[in-house]
């Protein structure tokens, strides 16, 4: 898919219903069919919310973030200061910045894990980004965080983590696609499904490596289900897109923002602004309300608490 096609399907901010602001804007992402799904028997449909943090790139050093050694800790403090404790936290990849040195890679993963352990919420889900896993097919990552693709359930919602980075070509691969098909085969068509990936599953801007080589195969499998939403990272900015009835939401980074797809010749980080430190960085709260089962509320929050 070329950029123009992707842009035609992208969701503008105006297409989301602005509700309020508390450190960040709140948007509602409509999920068609959610009401009927909520009425399914046996589902523990309760309000809950989780936090998405992404692209921390622990180990990065450079002008785009002069506080590279302190930003992740500030985000941990901000999450810990939330008045309401989230049900769980998910990191959507690029926990560390890439390095050719296997020992240094492990040291960065170890340091990242130690800092993340400071989160008050102990139900934390991790997944790799290409910076963590593409040079060794996820070997070092798995030593610290276990499987790179897995599923879990929470209060009536089925969560599926897809690894589209351990293959250095940016592919999911036939083995994992077969696993995904089997996972989906066990769920009814109206099941509520949330997918976490690092790269976008659609061709956002392949020229900048913002795509998954065989992502269309995963989307095709997911299309058979009525209630699917995808949250991903990789592009270091908030972005919303639809593939059919499936909404895809990218999160901001915690190290440096990147430019809009195709907006400049190269995919170079946006410069740090001393007048507005941490601008373009942040994390996301995702709320599911059983009383309003048609909606997810996405709240973009800043790195600094308060």
UniProtKB/TrEMBL annotation:
<dbReference type="InterPro" id="IPR029052">
    <property type="entry name" value="Metallo-depent_PP-like"/>
</dbReference>
<dbReference type="Pfam" id="PF00149">
    <property type="entry name" value="Metallophos"/>
</dbReference>
<feature type="domain" description="Calcineurin-like phosphoesterase">
    <location>
        <begin position="50"/>
        <end position="237"/>
    </location>
</feature>
<dbReference type="InterPro" id="IPR004843">
    <property type="entry name" value="Calcineurin-like_PHP"/>
</dbReference>
<dbReference type="InterPro" id="IPR051918">
    <property type="entry name" value="STPP_CPPED1"/>
</dbReference>
<protein>
    <submittedName>
        <fullName>Tat (Twin-arginine translocation) pathway signal sequence domain protein</fullName>
    </submittedName>
</protein>
<dbReference type="GO" id="GO:0016787">
    <property type="term" value="F:hydrolase activity"/>
</dbReference>
<dbReference type="InterPro" id="IPR006311">
    <property type="entry name" value="TAT_signal"/>
</dbReference>
